[in-house]
Amino acid sequence: MKRLNSQLQDDGAPMELILLIRTLLAGCKEIAFRVSQGALAGVLGSTLSENVQGETQKKLDVISNQILKDILKDSGYVKAISSEEEDDVVACNPDGKYLVSFDPLDGSSNTDINSLIGTIFSISHAPQWMKPDDPSAFLQPGTQSVAAGYVLYGPSAMLAMTTGRGTHLYTLDKTHGGFLLTKANVKVPEQTSEFAINTSNQRHWEAPIQNYVADLLAGEDGPRGKDFNMRWVAAMVGDIHRVLSRGGIFLYPFDKRNPEKPGKLRLLYEANPMAFLMEQAGGMADTGTGRIMEVMPSEIHQRVPVLLGSKQEVQTCLDYYK
Ligand code: FBP
Known about the structure:
By secondary structure, this protein is α+β, with helices and mostly antiparallel strands. The protein is 29% helix and 24% strand. The chain contains seven helices and 15 strands. The chain has an eight-stranded mixed sheet, sandwiched between helices. Bound molecules: 1,6-di-O-phosphono-beta-D-fructofuranose (FBP). 1,6-di-O-phosphono-beta-D-fructofuranose (FBP) is lined by residues 55, 84, 103, 106-109, 198, 234-236, 264.
């Protein structure tokens, strides 16, 4: 089976980017091992501290963040890091060519129930003019990303990866510790009968999403004329992996609870990397009012509404906004 390295080379990725990706994934392999140890290693449960998002940090959030921070800082390839678990950007090598944004452990509410969790990352060029501790360098639209991916810590550890030449899926071979290509050039079906949204937030949604979901639930008796099924992993990495694997639409839309926070999911290290993967797989990724990857970030922990997945279904959802 083809190894990650040769696929990245075939996709024309520059050697330094390949070395950075391999370094980041070495950290993910360490996280995969720590996650698999669970209660045996005492890594389950919460800490007493909160992150900048006001969320109680899980022990594995802190452990995963530290693993990635250490390995990327030591690599020499990275100028600065932005992480869900870090209030501010983390300065690394002043001569580093790249910026890395990551969610060290997505779906952390699933850690204590042995359910799907993952690491999400995106990589962009570091402007030569920036100081390593300057957050404004991260305020680049997703269209500037040079690579994005996630590692899903599930029954098998799987990687979804793009450098702008298609989205490929890899499986971690625990015998030799490498990621092997298991699905090249993923193509997300344009149509679907499967949607993912946290319906417990329904009363807070805007009218377009209220109407869109109501028509999905009306099924074949309603204007859509077919039945839809619902899934919700409560870990974006798990829901997106399902959409990449068999199609679907994933929504975490704007809700009226806190207009200051136009969504739950973070642009730099959740929405943008998933949008890049989805678009490279023939899907679509929108906020409801425009392409996610064209959003100009205003700060590193900015949140955006997220509607992404099978192209025709996302387009149908967007038609409800007209
Ligand atoms: P973190 O776990 O990294 O904070 O991510 C947020 C997240 O868990 C997403 O992975 C998931 O899609 C969503 O929140 C679940 O939200 P909810 O708790 O509303 O179901």
